[in-house]
Design a protein that fits this description.
Length: 428
């Protein structure tokens, strides 16, 4: 159901939805809202006070300090653009939520400015430090619709005693000036007192000189005593000045010792950083490189050993194979030599009979070679006269006729009578 919504001067109403191309914003007023088609949001405009604590931040010279500041911020409602930006980021958020977000932004800028200044600059020129933080932070926060009203430093501390050491030289200087002033005042008072006494005594003596001569001896003694008194007084003043000078010298020596200790601490911090970087280098670069080098060397040695073993195995296999082949060739040669020797012996012993035997062994092969052309013949046509044979017997008869004529051919070639040699062999 439609209704009016109101807000005080410290609050803004933002309505968006139907009938509004852009969100409508009202500061300290009222708006008619239709909940079904429109949405309403609130934005607090109160001043927000936030504490900015930054602990253990290293300054420009590497000294860690703690800084606590106070900032006054609020949503910038004077400009519509800033109010719109704040509405986008903080609408319906509580003051604590806005305070937390802005506080983190301010703390980041405070930490960044601390890193660009020395401890002395932050401690002595707090206004300059605050101005830098305020200037840098205002730009970012203004883009968020937040205006920084003020920023001040509340406290600057450290956990190492650095700030306390900075105050010691000034404290010693003030004490020294106070002691010198006190000594000068005492000295002036003593001089004035002595001068007054001298003038009084002179008046008394002038009055008494005319009254009695005996008073002269008294005056001489008195003058002698006064001289001794003044001498002691002068010696006392000189001793005081000497002691004051010694005190000043000790103060200067202690100041120098403080500077030496600070320098030693800086050197120690630098040495620790160098050691840390060296260890980091050893852990991230040198050790992995050495491990990789060792791994590569081991793999190379293993590969080299593998190749040597494989080469030796191949060489041994080749040698054994060569020996086996040589042995086989030698055995074959011996067998062939023995066979040839036996054949030679047989030839010498049997002569024609051996030749006949060899020829008889080759006759089937000769007959096969004679009949071989017939295997390639697809068709045979036999023609015969009135008295000739007809049929397959004619073909075999031709082959046998060729074989039968072989002894005659061998006799013409070798001079061995096959028929005679066969009869001799059968007779034996």
């Amino acid at each position: 159901m439609a209704g009016f919504y109101t807000c005080g001067p410290n609050e803004a109403l933002i309505v968006s939805g139907c009938c509004h191309a852009k969100p409508k914003m009202v500061v300290g007023g009222r708006l008619l809202v239709f909940p079904c088609v429109q949405k309403i949001g609130r934005l607090p405009l109160n001043v927000i006070t936030t504490k900015i604590r930054t602990n253990q931040v290293f300054t420009q010279l590497g000294v860690p300090i703690n800084v606590t500041g106070t900032a006054q911020i609020k949503i910038h409602s004077k400009e519509k653009k800033s109010l719109m930006a704040a509405a986008e980021l903080f609408m319906n958020r509580s003051t604590d939520q806005i305070k937390k977000i802005c506080g983190e932004t301010l703390e980041g800028h405070q930490r960044a400015i601390m890193g660009t200044m020395t401890v002395e600059d932050i401690y002595k020129n707090r206004a300059a430090f605050s101005e830098q933080v305020l200037q840098v932070a205002s730009t970012d926060l203004m883009s968020m619709g937040i205006r920084v009203i003020s920023y001040t430093i509340n406290e600057v501390t450290d956990d190492e005693g650095y700030l306390k050491a900075l105050g010691k030289p000034r404290t010693a200087e003030v004490k020294r000036d106070a002691d010198i002033g006190n000594a000068e005042a005492k000295r002036d008072a003593g001089i004035e007192e002595a001068a007054a006494n001298e003038r009084a005594m002179q008046a008394v003596y002038e009055n008494k000189i005319t009254t009695a001569v005996a008073q002269r001896d008294y005056l001489l003694k008195k003058a002698s005593y006064d001289q001794e008194t003044f001498t002691k007084k002068a010696q006392s003043d000189l001793a005081y000045e000497l002691q004051s000078a010694k005190t000043q010298q000790r103060i200067k020596e202690e100041t120098m010792e403080i500077k030496v200790i600070e320098r030693k601490k800086q050197i120690s911090i630098q040495e620790q950083e160098i050691t840390r970087k060296q260890r980091e280098l050893d852990a991230q670069v040198i050790k992995p490189a050495e491990a990789e080098k060792y791994k590569i060397e081991m793999l190379a040695n293993a590969e080299r050993s593998k190749r040597v073993i494989e080469a030796e195995a191949k060489a041994e296999a080749i040698r054994l194979k060569a020996e086996a082949q040589a042995f086989a060739i030698e055995a074959k040669a011996k067998a062939e030599a023995e066979q040839m020797a036996k054949k030679a012996d047989a030839w010498n012993e049997y002569k024609d009979a051996a030749m006949v035997d060899m020829i008889l062994q080759q006759l089937p092969k000769i007959a096969a070679e004679v009949a071989a052309p017939l295997q390639n013949v697809n068709k045979v046509t036999l023609v015969s006269g009135p008295n000739g044979e007809v049929g397959a017997a004619k073909l075999t008869g031709e082959v046998l006729e060729i074989v039968r004529k072989l002894p005659k051919v061998i006799e013409e070639i070798t001079g061995v009578d096959m028929s005679k040699a066969m009869r001799i062999s059968v007779a034996q």
